[in-house]
Amino acid sequence: MVKRRCAPWVAVRGCTALACAMLALLAANAIAAPKTYVVAIENMQFNPPDLTVKRGDRVVWINKDIFPHTATAETRAFDSRSIAASASWSYEPGKAGTFPYGCTFHPTMHGALTVR
Ligand SMILES: [Cu+2]
User: Fold this and answer.
1) Domain 36-115 belongs to what topology?
2) Where is each EfeO-type cupredoxin-like domain found (predicted)?
């Protein structure tokens, strides 16, 4: 029979494989639950300009200006293409790294997405 390690807060003598498995599942869910982050595009700026997320999280760029913008990684790791006024674009990064990005329409606009 395989012995399993159990979390210390579980009564040592009462620890069963099932209890351990359930705890592990709960812990995994708590850690892995993806989050959604919003980057507002407003007044020709990305806000926040720098954002750090985890792989599998969702990032939503919302264009609050009255003209289109893009969120385009310098490496082209992601590219929203044109985001119309009042529209949004979402992206779920799958690769870790730091991705400087900008708007292809407005070269003064810069941001950075870091994925862990
Ligand atoms: Cu722009």
Assistant:
1) Immunoglobulin-like (2.60.40)
2) 17-115
**CA proximity to 15, closest of 3, 25, 26:** 3
What is the predicted pLDDT for the residue at 96?
A: 97
Distance 89 CA to ligand 1 centre (A): 14
Q: Give per-residue pLDDT as tens, 51-75.
A: 999 999 999 999 999 999 999 999 9
CA 54 – ligand 1 centroid, Å:
25
Compute the distance between CA of residue 91 and CA of residue 61 in angstroms, rounded to an integer: 9
**pTM of the complete model:** 0.74
90: DSSP letter: E
Please report, for the chain, the start and end positions of each structural domain, with discontinuous segments joined by +.
Answer: 1-33, 36-115
DSSP strand pairing (36-42 vs 45-47): antiparallel
Distance (Å) from CA 10 to ligand 1 centroid: 54
